[in-house]
Inverse folding.
């Protein structure tokens, strides 16, 4: 019988290996199909709230993903076997390839080159297969654009609302165990809404501390130096906060609701105020006389928020009935109402922007931008991964700040393009649900404030030119 050469024998063995591998692959695919069918039967037997059509579509998609990764895994195994076969052929001393003899250095170079080509092929294959998945996780902004500047602590419960005074000096107001706080447009007066079915108007006076001349401790005696250093030390009893004035008596109380007053705001000019309540009504009051002017009825469930237009006599109220309503008081004799229907869950807030736009946020994890001239459908829709709480719009730059239940705060423009996300980690940012945000374009350092259930308010510096340029 003729005797096979070493190269022919090795070639036949390699062919048999590939043949047996292909057979094993076929058997594996058959068993995988059986296993997939078994899993489908098991899943179909389980209780689920999803419709059968949606469930079948999900099972089909997951099956396609599993088959794709299985094909990549098999291709990876085949490439690795080819690498091993090539290394075995090149490892023998005195072997020739293409009729030329190679030295050990050439063998090493050839094997390294072939291995690098195969590795590059694997990388290209995996990158092409996963690029669509990874693209959804790209970051859009750097931490340098949004920086935490200061934390405000002192409350013993969660902070529901935050507001910035429009007058000078700039005053920051936070509401804890009070549902909302809003500053008067021209005076040092604040409006609060409470769970005791009332709203109150308070007058405050802010006096900035007079800068004290610093004494030169180097020209004092040793005893004087000790006294100077003692004055710089804070008191050990922690009574430093007792210097803050406490206002215990309001100017007036607004009483007409039969349920929790969840929000309140000033109408343009500051002579009237509007309140929103869980009794499904909103009330318009005369501030000077505390008399009820209008009771705004029509919502089917509890109200969640109210907001007034900065330059016109317009009011928008949101409710758990998945709608928000626009109330027009520009004509003293007639006040009209328009209903906006576009959300599928509680509308947590709706706010005005410059011009004829309203932005609404909802527990259905969407934010919608509306044109008051055409309220049939929103002009932009923002879809998020968590319920949206009380939103706020930067008037000058038209940037929307969205506080979420999942502790995130995201920034969008009016067309629905995401601009940034505020940094959040174990060392900075909110640790619990973020309830509200407030823009302050006149503040020299902080131009965005946030508050949440972690009992603190945070001041952020947003580099708006860089933010818009990155957009």
């Amino acid at each position: 019988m003729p005797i096979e050469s070493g190269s022919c024998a090795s070639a036949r063995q390699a062919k048999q290996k590939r043949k047996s591998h292909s057979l094993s692959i076929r058997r594996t695919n058959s068993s995988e199909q059986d296993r997939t069918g078994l899993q489908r039967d098991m899943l179909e037997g389980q209780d689920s709230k999803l419709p059968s059509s949606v469930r079948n579509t999900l099972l089909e998609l997951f099956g396609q993903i599993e088959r794709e990764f299985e094909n990549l895994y098999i291709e990876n195994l085949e490439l690795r076997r080819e690498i091993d076969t090539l290394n075995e052929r090149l490892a023998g001393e005195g072997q020739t390839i293409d009729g030329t003899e190679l030295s050990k250095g050439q063998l090493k170079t050839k094997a390294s080159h072939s291995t690098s080509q195969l590795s590059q092929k694997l990388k290209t294959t995996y990158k092409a297969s996963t690029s669509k998945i990874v693209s959804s996780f790209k970051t859009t902004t750097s931490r340098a654009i949004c920086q935490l500047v200061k934390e405000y602590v002192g409350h013993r419960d969660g902070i529901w609302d935050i507001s910035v005074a429009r007058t000078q000096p700039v005053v920051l107001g936070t509401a804890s165990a009070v549902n909302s706080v809003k500053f008067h447009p021209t005076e040092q007066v604040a409006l609060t809404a409470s769970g005791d079915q009332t709203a109150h108007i308070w007058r405050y006076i802010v006096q900035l501390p007079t800068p004290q001349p610093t004494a030169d401790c180097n020209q004092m005696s040793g005893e004087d130096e000790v006294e100077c250093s003692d004055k710089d030390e804070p008191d050990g009893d922690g009574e430093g906060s007792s210097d803050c004035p406490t206002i215990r008596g309001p100017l007036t109380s607004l009483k007409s609701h039969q349920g929790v007053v969840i929000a309140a705001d000033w109408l343009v000019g500051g002579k009237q105020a509007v309140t929103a309540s869980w009794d499904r009504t909103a009330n318009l009051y005369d501030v000077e006389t505390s008399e009820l002017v209008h009771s705004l009825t029509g919502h089917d469930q509890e109200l969640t928020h109210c907001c007034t237009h900065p330059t016109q006599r317009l009011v928008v109220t949101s409710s758990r009935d998945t709608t928000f309503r626009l109330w027009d008081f520009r004509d003293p004799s007639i006040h009209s109402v328009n209903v906006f229907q576009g959300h599928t869950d509680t509308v947590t807030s709706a706010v005005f922007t410059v011009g004829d736009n309203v932005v609404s946020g909802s527990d259905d994890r969407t934010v919608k931008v509306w044109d008051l001239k055409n309220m049939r459908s929103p002009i932009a829709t923002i879809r998020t991964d968590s319920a949206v709480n009380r939103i706020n719009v930067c008037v000058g730059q038209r940037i929307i700040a969205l506080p979420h239940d999942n502790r995130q705060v995201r920034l969008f423009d009016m067309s629905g393009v995401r601009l940034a996300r505020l940094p959040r980690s174990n060392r900075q940012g909110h640790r619990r649900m973020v309830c509200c945000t407030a823009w302050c374009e006149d503040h020299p350092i902080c131009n965005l404030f946030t508050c949440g259930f972690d009992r603190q308010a945070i001041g952020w510096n947003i580099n708006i030119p860089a933010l818009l340029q990155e957009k």
Summary: The chain has five helices and 28 strands. The radius of gyration is 34 Å.
